[in-house]
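#structure-requests
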Amino acid sequence: MVCLNNIQEELLKILLDNFHENGTTSVAKFDYEILPLHIRLDIHNIMNELQELHILVGFEIETNWDTTPYTNEVIAILTPYAKKYFSEKETNEKKQNWKLAGGKDMFRTLTPKVRALFAEILENRDILDEYFKNKFEDLSYDDDVVLRGMIEELINKDLISVPLWAENLPYNVSITYNGTIYFEQEAEFEKQKEINAAQIFNIDTFNAHGSNVTFGNVINSTQSIDNSIEQVKKLIDEHGGDDKKELNELLEDVKEICGNINETKTIHKNSGLMKRLNKNIEKHGWFYSSVIQLLGKSVFQVLG
């Protein structure tokens, strides 16, 4: 399962407390002012993160200029997975799934720069004292502060142990057990994220009328959908291997469905397509996720 951080979970709880069903769509709608200040200050970034993790399909912060003072309203569409996140988390915690060694915490990915540093540390694990001495040599003050901060993050995540600092440098550094299995855990985590994309849409028949609301970055013009299709074609050429023909045929079917959605403003169940897509999810998870995003854009154009 996808594992959210504390702030993401806090916002998800607020969304779940304020959602209602609109046909087959789960829409959360509430006054922006009910959000805690620390979430309001970073609301767009947190919402975008939830969207990337397949918790949200889209969102909008809408301003009502007709009130004095004017008010802001949060509108978000939840994926089916969002509604069962906490129940699945509880189940997995009981089973000790996604726990790091010793049951200390659920898996958390590293930021790209810290991840790159940790990969270097693993490569130099037999000469770490020399490695860190060279790493800190001739650094500017700012770069020195950043490097120490990244090391602190690795310590806090229990990936490395630094029992001693000698001459202000890390000394006798060792890799913890959690550190030795980090990249294995990360690979499994990323694989699970791709599989979770399958849970985003259960495409049934529904109609949407007359909304002027737009939802985050997933709602774009028909031209944007065409551009996305071209990008998927390039991915197929690069990564499709022996399945290029089948994937291109599937993409053409999806393109036709997107066109029908835009033309008729109606979404019809298509279990045949979903079965064909499901056949490719393990081998070509990137393709499945891309197709789901294309369908999502068309769905929200119906609402827009």
